[in-house]
Amino acid sequence: MKILIVGSGSFVFDDMYGPGVILRSVVQWCLDTQDDHKKTIILSYHSSEKLPEKKAKAAEILNEFSALSHDIAIEFIPSADIASVIENGDLASCFIAVPDQFHALYTRLCIENNCPVWIVKPLTGNLVEAKELQDLCKARNGRVWVDYHKRFDTSNALLKTKLQADELGQALVYSVDYHQPYILPTQVFDWAKDVDVFSYIGCHYVDQVFYLYPDAVLKSVYTSGVKGQVFEKTGQFDCVLANLTFQHGTHTLHVPMNVGWSNPKGSPTKSLQTLKVQCENGIVNLDQTRRGVQIWQDDGVSEINPYFFCKIKDIFGRYRYEGYGFESVKTFLDLVRTDAVWASNQSLPTLNEAVKTEHVLDAVKQSLISKR
Predict the structure, then answer these.
(1) In the chain, fewer beta carbons within 10 Å around the N or the C end?
(2) Alpha-carbon torsion (109, 119, 122, 19), positive or negative
(3) In sequence order, which residues have a C-beta less than 8 Å from that of residue 154 and are 6 or more positions away?
(4) Quick one: pLDDT at residue 68?
(5) Of residues 317 and 14, which shows the higher confidence score?
């Protein structure tokens, strides 16, 4: 079995806030699905200058799992060879973890070569490309999965269960406050000038609207962009305030969102994310930052979300990775391995679901452009 990972950046390996999700999750899945087949994970790289460092990191991760003794190997290819590897037709699946502007290119290659593909969110950040991929996927029966991993977060599943059970009546207002440190776009990400913060992280909670109400339709958009140090460095707004209105059935849902690169360098967490859902018969507050785990050290306090992606010791004393970040990878690979039919109940983060979010992201972009 061969699995290709296009990209070898922070979400593949790691960043200053913790371990990368993709490579560790793929290795964990390989270990969990023991069979007689050798598993080869192929990683692409852009710069040969950093290749020795990436090879050393990959070997470190395999050693962390003691995976060398389980017929799991990691190989590297230059980005110029990605197309030929996909076109060879012997891949079990492909993961795409590169900047948004390259998503359409590699996703199209995968669909055309019948290779199931998993993509970091958003689908493309470009509505025209997203619709073209949707048409191609339909024509070729493609299997495309977009990593809207919050669909696997138990707190969001609980909210959906409560709303479907009609315990709280209809949701009236779905308020989102989601921020990350300003140093990410100004000092860490070299592609920040090409991606606005609403598309980069706000897309998660737009997707959540469609997770809760698959028939929701965007009716109105009002936005305001906040300029500060991020804008000075990248040309992208520090913060986006968006008031969205959706219609589902005969009901209206108001979605005010405050999304930005506003947190200071010394923030105790990478992502500050809180929700308030006002319903006809009650309110649901979801603090998706403070999950009950704090680590105090001499250099500060860290707020840990162990439910996203975390290395733990299981009941048998074995180290493994768990969390809803892992579940997104695991569920995709399980479906690929068993060749199972993907559910059509709109719960899985398929391409068709992701295109709904692309329409909203485009509307927000156009609103912001009109006010610059």
Answers:
(1) C
(2) negative
(3) 307, 324
(4) 56
(5) 14
Going by C-alpha positions, the residue among 334, 362, 357 that lies closest to residue 346 is: 357
β-bridge pairing 251-263 and 117-119: unpaired
Tell me which of 5-9, 108-112, 150-154, 189-193 is least confident.
189-193
Distance CA 10, CA 17 (A): 10
Chain position carrying tokens 């295109």: 355
Same-fold call for 2-149+321-354 versus 154-306: no
Supply the pTM of this predicted model.
0.95
Q: What is the C-alpha to C-alpha distance for residues 148 and 146, in angstroms, rounded to an integer?
A: 6
d(CA 272, CA 260): 10
DSSP sequence for 213-280: -TT-EEEEEEEEEE-SHHHHHHSS-SEEEEEEEEEETTEEEEEEEEEEEEE-TT-SSS-EEEEEEEET
The identity of residue 246, as a single letter, is: F
Determine the Cα–Cα distance for residues 61 and 104; give it in Å rounded to an integer: 29
- Per-residue pLDDT, 240: 98
Per domain, the residue ranges of the chain are 2-149+321-354, 154-306
Please name the residues in contact with 366: beta carbons below 8 A apart, sequence gap of 6 or more.
none
Beta strands 310-313; 319-322: pairing state: antiparallel
For domain 154-306, which CATH number applies: 3.30.360.10, 1.10.150.130, 3.40.50.150, 2.60.40.10?
3.30.360.10
Paired tokens of 307 = 């439910």
Angle at 6 (CA atoms; ends 14, 95), nearest 5 degrees: 85
Element (H, E) at 4: strand 2-6
Residues 6+ apart with CB under 8 A from 125: 100, 101, 103, 195, 199, 358, 361
CATH 3.50.50.60 fits 2-149+321-354, yes or no: no
State the pLDDT at residue 65: 82
Q: What is the pLDDT of residues 248-272, one digit of tens each?
A: 999 999 999 999 999 999 899 999 9
